[in-house]
Amino acid sequence: MVKEKVIILGAGIAGSQTALELAQDYDVHIFTKSDPLASNSALAQGGIAAAVHPDDEPLSHYRDTLIAGHFENNRKAVRLLVEEAPHIIEELHREGFIFDQTSKGKLLFGLEGAHSMPRILHAGGDQTGLLLTRFLHDHFPATVQFHQHEMATSILLDEYGHVAGIRTLTTKDGHCHFYHCDHLIIATGGIGQIFGSTSNDLSITGDGIAMAIQIGARVSDLSAIQFHPTLYFANGHAVGLVSEAVRGQGAVLVDQNDRRLMAEEHPLADLAPRDVVSSVLFRAQNAGCTIFLDISAVTDFETKFPQITAMLDKNQEPFRLTKKIPVQPGAHFLMGGISTNLSGQTSIPDLYAIGEAASTGVHGSNRLASNSLLEAFVFSKRAADQIKRTKVAYKKMAIIPKKTKGLQGTLPEKAVLQEKVRQALGIERSEKTLNDLLCFLATHSFLNCQVTNKDMLERRNMCILAAKMADNALVQLQRVETEMR
Question: Which residues are 28's β-sheet partners?
Answer without folding.
Answer: 6
